[in-house]
Automatic annotation (TrEMBL):
It is found in: Membrane. It comes from Chitinophaga caeni. This is CDP-alcohol phosphatidyltransferase. Gene3D superfamilies: 1.20.120.1760. PROSITE patterns: CDP_ALCOHOL_P_TRANSF, PROKAR_LIPOPROTEIN. GO terms for cellular component: membrane.
Amino acid sequence: MKQIPNILTLANLFCGCMAIIFVLYAPETLTELNGVDYSVTNPAPVYWASVFVVLAGVFDLFDGMVARMLKVSSPVGKELDSLADVVSFGVVPGMILFRILRSAYMQQPDIFDVSYVNLAPALLVPCFAAYRLAKFNLDTRQSENFIGMPTPAVGLLVASFPLIMLYDQYNVAHYLGNIWIIYAIIAVLCYLMVAEIPMISMKFKKLKAKENLPRFLVIAIVIVSIPVFKFLAVPIIFASYVILSLVMPPKIEDA
């Protein structure tokens, strides 16, 4: 029984590895222009990477919950959870942003190849995610709420981008084709992960409405936005979560 949470954590890691495979697998087809062959990435497999990030998020949610229910929390489980998270919600989002950024460059007129130097900023996401998780493991102030954006939230946000681009219900996909918007997203996400900003935890310790008002508001936004905005609801929920954390900051206990 005590290994069940670890099995769920490993399932999270497995999903992260599968997502990496789908990002890497995205095949490239050749197109000819003025007698020169250029490669064009087929983005379809990246959508499956998004699906596996969501599955990783489900396993990440339940491993801690099951560990608390069975009262089998352990230092090994805590470290294993962080190792899985840095893959599923750090490396994978970085690779997805790498692909999106490359596609954005390739859509520009007269550009048929792009330097990896221009794409390298996407890899800052896994670097900052790793630092954020290492910091979280040692920071005793984050037992009740978070300081800085949790990596699963970053992973799920980035995972929504390929799906938003595929099901462009509100004609916003072109914004993800703007390289400067992508660079700005990378910068903001990296900052939020390591910033000393108290963030709301969705753990309900008590049922008092006043203490849980920010959590109830987040849940209400989730319930309302998903049926209306579909995949676009994810960035809306993310932005709302950040705003609520700033406007109604949770109390952080001193170490």
